[in-house]
């Protein structure tokens, strides 16, 4: 999203804004990974993040 708004260095700001989003499923922030490609935090918890990613993968 930071790249989409032409602010690639604003990754943390975008992540913070998404993290405060009361509607978790409106913006699929469960797809966001850390710089190293690992699973980072998720407001719904890492268990839910993994489950959502697995569900998407199973439905491809």
UniProtKB/TrEMBL annotation:
Tagged with keyword Plastid: no
Domain Methylated-DNA-[protein]-cysteine S-methyltransferase DNA binding per the UniProt entry, residue ranges: 1-57
Keyword Methyltransferase recorded: yes
Catalysed conversion reaction: a 4-O-methyl-thymidine in DNA + L-cysteinyl-[protein] = a thymidine in DNA + S-methyl-L-cysteinyl-[protein]; a 6-O-methyl-2'-deoxyguanosine in DNA + L-cysteinyl-[protein] = S-methyl-L-cysteinyl-[protein] + a 2'-deoxyguanosine in DNA
Gene3D superfamilies: Winged helix-like DNA-binding domain superfamily/Winged helix DNA-binding domain
Keyword terms of this UniProt record: DNA damage, DNA repair, Methyltransferase, Transferase
MF terms (GO), sorted A to Z: methylated-DNA-[protein]-cysteine S-methyltransferase activity
PANTHER family tied to this protein: METHYLATED-DNA--PROTEIN-CYSTEINE METHYLTRANSFERASE, METHYLATED-DNA--PROTEIN-CYSTEINE METHYLTRANSFERASE, INDUCIBLE
Listed name of the protein: Methylated-DNA-[protein]-cysteine S-methyltransferase DNA binding domain-containing protein
